[in-house]
Design goal:
This protein is α+β, with helices and mostly antiparallel strands. The protein has a 4-stranded antiparallel beta sheet. Helix content is about 35%, strand content about 20%. The two termini are about 15 Å apart. Keywords: DNA-binding, Membrane, Transcription, Transcription regulation, Transmembrane, Transmembrane helix.
Length: about 160
Amino acid sequence: MPADDLDKTDRAILAALQNDGRMSNARLAETVGLSETPCARRLKRLENDGYIDRYRAVLSRGALGLGVVAFVLVRFAVHDRVVATRFEREVQAIPRILSCHNVSGSADYILQIVARDLDDYGTFMRDELRGLPGVTSVESALSLREVKAYGGLPLS
């Protein structure tokens, strides 16, 4: 179903679940102005149609002792599909790399990385990131303060 086929109620369900993925069906139905059975049917349809990718908990970096967030521009000297595929596979296996995007512009990839502190980040850069397939240079931008975290996708 194309996004244009989502009505106001579908969008309200998706918005409510982006704010609280553990919301009970009863509370969700009340929030969007439906009775429970039609709400459950709509929710199941939204899941089956792929609008809801998965449910997850958002963990606290602070509570887990991950005080450093870095955005890293990764560059390759040679653009070889085999090397890029190996790089992407290895990146997916490293938990401290939260996201990886293949981008246009001066870099080939942008990574979001977490670390306990600057020493931990430096060790990771030296021992792991710089040794990944294809990597010839990296440039880090350290987050000084998070202004907005993942707030969900726009539904308008």
